Amino acid sequence: MDYQLEWNEAGRTKNAPDVEAIKLLQFYEGAALHADPRGYCVCTSEGKDSRVLGHLMRRAGVKHFYMHNITGIDPPELIYFQRANFQAYRDLGYLTYDVMYQYSMWELCRKKRMLPMRQRRFCCESLKERPAPECGKAFKCMGVRKFESSNRMKKRNELEIVEHGKDGKNIVMPFDNSENRRIFEQCYATAERRVNPIAYWTDSDIWDYSKDVGLEQCSLYDEGFTRLGCIGCPMARRAGREHEFNRWPKFRDQYIRTAQHIIDDKPDNHYFKQKFRSGQEYFDWWMQDRTQEEADDNQMDVWEEWR
Fold this sequence. Notes:
Layout: H1 18-27, H2 29-35, E1 40-43, H3 48-60, E2 64-69, H4 76-91, E3 96-99, H5 105-112, H6 122-127, E4 140-142, H7 150-155, E5 159-162, E6 170-173, H8 178-186, E7 192-195, H9 203-213, H10 237-247, H11 249-265, H12 271-275, H13 279-286, H14 289-293, H15 297-306
Parallel strand pairs: 1-2, 1-4, 2-3, 4-7
Antiparallel strand pairs: 5-6, 5-7
Helix pairs in contact: 1-3, 10-11, 11-13
């Protein structure tokens, strides 16, 4: 693996927004160090976007450390890739943190009495987004991009302030505005601040950059995978999930077993138990895209039960 920190000007990417991303990181390094002497907290899964983010951090020469949330449902190949990369980062002198979940995916499903839905992604809140003591008050850097979804297009930006105690409300703002920079740096001192240097990058930008700098990516991309999120995530749509379950059938089996546990945990006279006779039936219903997108009366009955 190539983790060279030096940057050869002859190898600079052509027409890529890497320079702007580095300027943003260098601009806020002082504020980041004031918040935490370890520097920026790079929240990474070691997928393609966070790999590019990490490379930009090292290129920028800013102080930072790496944090990875263990979900228990990531692709095995990505897990091995992440472990190897974290060892390489430690060899270079960087701090790394692997954050263990409080409840496993399967425990969460039984606690919530349902499998996750696109509009009820309790797994993301618990496995990826919950505050981690390892992060402290550090500025978070993430590989999120606005072009990944319509929701991120509206709600994510280069600079973000998350006001604690206000239902997780985000104040988002682009970097190229002096007033926004002032607000981000001086105000909301107790809030969580996030810097997303590749917020405006496209898929082409990511792959062009990786190719130009010789940045190794997870081998699963060579197999045709375009996203390396949690296995079975409903955001991937049915075709994507079927591809994942064909590749890793043990995860499909675990979802079916968990679905059966959810049914068995219900009272005998409960509607949910009457609707699905087995974990397989519940799983088959859950896999439908229409189920995820169009809430009908039956689905609302199921959702309301755990709220």
